[in-house]
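haha ok so turns out i had the wrong file open the whole time. this is the CORRECT one, sorry everyone. sequence first:
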Amino acid sequence: MVPCASAFVALLAAAQLVAAPARVERGLTFALSFDARGRAVTRGPFALRVPGAKNALKVVFDSVALSGGMLDAPVRLLNESGTDLFAVRIDLVGVTESVKPQGQAAFSRAQDVAPPPPLAFDAIRSGAETPGELFRGGPISFAADTEVVVVMGVVSGVAAVPANAKVDVRTPATKASACPGAAPACRVDAEGNLWRVEPAEGEKRGGLSQRTREGGVVRSLWFERGDKPVDLSLAPDGRLLVFFDDGSKDGAVRAFRPF
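then structure:
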């Protein structure tokens, strides 16, 4: 299932989180560029290497145009990474304009473009391709002395990576990794992100959510119905270790790597 941004917001609200996803500015980056007349110069495709995966996630723009100052770019994601990807987002993170006034040195300046809602996908299985979704943003402006305009985007999510039940064991939170209020099944990573287990309750599936320190939801990964996530640890190599109650004595563990 690969819902668009509006569906993503609805999923967050249904999960009793927040109505709008928090902004993302870090991840796997790509850049679209336009010349002084607004014609696309750089449009990909872009091969973004997923950390911990053998290969790349490909970002393919079927077309790139500016319509009334708005970016209009249908985009598809082709998962050639060799692993399943979850809670994937595509965000517009900024627009930079390079200008060269007559008789002066060239310089760059940021344009004041409010980021639109992200495009979001629950899961992109290894080898799968998403349907085309419209990547938009703006307004993007051009002046008489504009030379190039660059639109920066970022793709982020979590990748399923191998876990070893004998080595990847539950570890208690440290002072640095404990969430505010000592919230159970919650950890703070090295970048200050709050990751917490969302327990399965009634008809609600269990999951894993990423939040900002202020509580804004960045992404939510939902497990299969019947899965019972109970705890979370941070592995020394940056993986997220999610522990499940599967009815066995020691339980089960799955690993995920944010990108």
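The helical segments are 5-14.
again sry for the mixup
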